[in-house]
Design brief:
Elements (H helix, E strand, L loop, with lengths): L9 E8 L3 H12 L3 E2 L9 E5 L41 H16 L3 E2 L4 E6 L8 E5 L2 E10 L21 E4 L13 E5 L3 H10 L4 E6 L5 E2 L5 H17 L7 H5 L1 E2 L2 H8 L5 E3 L3 E3 L2 E3 L5 E3 L2 E4 L24 E2 L2 E2 L2 E6 L8 H19 L30
Parallel strand pairs: 1-3, 1-7, 2-3, 3-4, 7-20, 8-17, 9-10, 9-17, 10-13, 11-12
Antiparallel strand pairs: 5-6, 6-7, 14-15, 15-16, 18-19, 19-20
Length: about 400
């Protein structure tokens, strides 16, 4: 699309793309550093807007399967200066987390437009200091910088195997999973070695005959995950990868799998018998790597997600390995672009810190030559509730 300025173009100093935990943190810290909403009548010359593709607050949490309870999620770290109210551990995460996010958005008075999907981000011209053009379903925004917080939910990994198009049974991805009851009495292949795969394998194995497939032998760690030890080691490894411009792997490729209650339940039920990946798919089932045939009625691809960054492709951020070289939250060769909730900041605590770091760097970039501004602005008031005990905080 042409970079020629259009009278209908809207303007913001910073456009934040996505309103999950990382995007909300970035918006909050921009507000604290004196940025005003680009939608406000009293907008200053330093403005920001948050474009969110979701129909309502909650980020990807509003799309999680109904049976994912707060007691089984890995933990939701508090949003900045906004402690979670007590939450019933048996409440569905797709209800509890969006409600908490919505309360934060209201108290922090963030300028969020939704549902707005971003098609592309490009440079207006060859000038390295020129505008960035954010083309969206709500028109074009001209920005001096962007914070990308689009997460992974809209970029599911769907491996291709020979014969996939000939399989007559049902195929679905984790993002399409609603609950185990739809598989009652069936023979179901669950593909994947991550946390979601194990949670869904355990649920489905209660009502169906399951077969578990992974590319590699899963690695289970002994003992609890200690954030102050293993958490720091994991962050250091992921940081080293993104700073080197290497594509990052799945979360469990860095952390291993914990033997949590649902894992032990699946093991006791006999569902945790891992098979190597099948060689091919046939109309009525799977051809195993040893040549045997396993009839199945459905295949659940619990094969994870990758960063949802296709809209940034016009900027040419990726190297020949498919990675993006980073320095903190900013792209090494494009300091106007910050990625939060990416790489080492994929956890909820990491997303909070990344939002704060991006806001700090962008304030300096857009006000080059002056000392960093003291954070100003109102702090949101924590919500209150009495619905039950709060869930624990956990680090990556």
């Amino acid at each position: 699309m042409s970079g020629q300025e259009d009278a209908d173009d809207r303007r913001a100093s910073v456009v934040v793309i996505g309103a999950g935990q990382a995007g909300l943190s970035a918006g909050y810290h921009l507000r604290r550093r004196g940025f005003t909403g680009a939608l406000d009548e009293d907008a200053s010359d330093r403005t920001f807007v948050v474009l969110d593709a979701g129909p309502a607050p909650g980020g990807a949490w509003q799309h999680r399967w109904e049976s994912l309870r707060m007691s089984t999620v890995n933990g939701i770290f508090d949003l900045p200066d906004f402690p979670k109210p007590p939450i019933d551990p048996e409440e569905a995460s797709r209800d509890a987390v969006p409600r908490y996010f919505a309360a934060f958005e209201e108290r922090a008075a963030l300028p969020i437009l939704r549902p707005v999907s971003v098609a592309s981000v490009s440079r207006a011209d060859a000038d390295p200091g020129g505008a960035l053009l954010v083309d969206s379903s709500a028109g074009r925004w001209r920005a001096r910088a962007i914070v990308n917080a689009t997460g992974t939910w809209n970029n599911p990994v769907l491996p291709r195997y020979p014969g996939r198009e000939r399989f007559r049974g049902r195929q679905l991805h984790t993002r399409d999973y609603a609950g185990a009851e739809e598989f009652a009495g069936l023979r179901v292949a669950v593909v994947g070695g991550g946390i979601s795969a194990l949670q869904q394998l355990e649920e489905i194995s209660r009502v169906a005959t399951t077969f578990w497939y992974t590319r590699r032998e899963p690695v289970f760690r002994d003992g609890s995950f200690r954030p102050e030890v293993e958490g720091r080691e994991v962050i250091a490894r992921v940081t080293a990868d993104v700073e080197a411009g290497n594509p990052t792997g799945s979360v469990v490729s860095y952390t291993g799998l914990a033997r949590l209650p649902y894992v032990l339940a699946a093991q006791e039920r006999g569902a945790l018998r891992r098979r190597p990946m099948f060689a091919a798919m046939e109309p009525a089932g799977l051809r195993e790597s040893d040549g045997a045939f396993t009839p199945v009625d459905a295949i659940l691809w619990a094969t994870g997600f990758k960063a949802d960054l296709a809209h940034l492709d016009p900027l040419g951020l990726r190297n020949d390995r498919g990675g993006i070289e980073m320095r903190g939250t900013r792209v090494a060769h494009e300091p106007r672009v910050h990625l939060v909730g990416f790489g080492p900041s994929q956890s909820t605590v990491g997303a909070n810190r990344a939002g704060r770091a991006a806001a700090r760097e962008l304030a300096r970039l857009l006000d080059a030559g002056s000392a960093p501004e003291r954070e100003t602005g109102p702090r949101p008031t924590p919500p209150t509730s009495s619905s039950g005990p709060s869930e624990r905080r956990t680090s990556p």
